[in-house]
Design a protein that fits this description.
The structure is a single chain. It contains 4 helices and 5 strands, in the order αααβαββββ. The protein is an alpha+beta fold and 147 residues long. The chain has a single domain (18-135), classed as Nuclear Transport Factor 2, Chain: A (Roll), CATH 3.10.450. The protein has a 5-stranded mixed beta sheet with strand order 1-5-4-3-2. A hairpin with a 7-residue loop joins strand 3 and strand 4. The longest helix has 14 residues, at 26-39.
Length: 147
Amino acid sequence: MKRWLLALCLLTMLAPVHAVDASKDPKTIVLAFYKLAMQDFKPAEAFAKYVAPGFIEHSADSPGGTAQSTVSFLEDLIKKMPDPKWKIVRSVAEGDLVFLHVRVTPAPNAPAIAVAEIFRVSNGKLVEHWDVIQHAPEHPVNPRSMF
């Protein structure tokens, strides 16, 4: 092998690897948002920090489909639950979309609720959200867990 080609290969291997900027990584942003909003019970603070102006909410439970209506809905939901727990079971990111599979337990010993959350992130902010919600059946016919 020519010496210049060998030197180029060695320089390429030794070049510094640039770390991904976590502040711009959609999955990192969504997980931080979700922790603050749902696990720390601070939806208003989470929306102020992580959500873009013009945020679009697609959830059927949020009247108006705006950030403010979603914050109001979440604050009311949290107040109605005796001891809620939101546990992220799985998270997947593809491009600007982040998918969460969440187990929600509204109170100790209450039946779980399966939630699929989909977020779209642009320029480091949440810009869109969808969800699919299914209550875990009391007597499922499938022996495998939903989680």
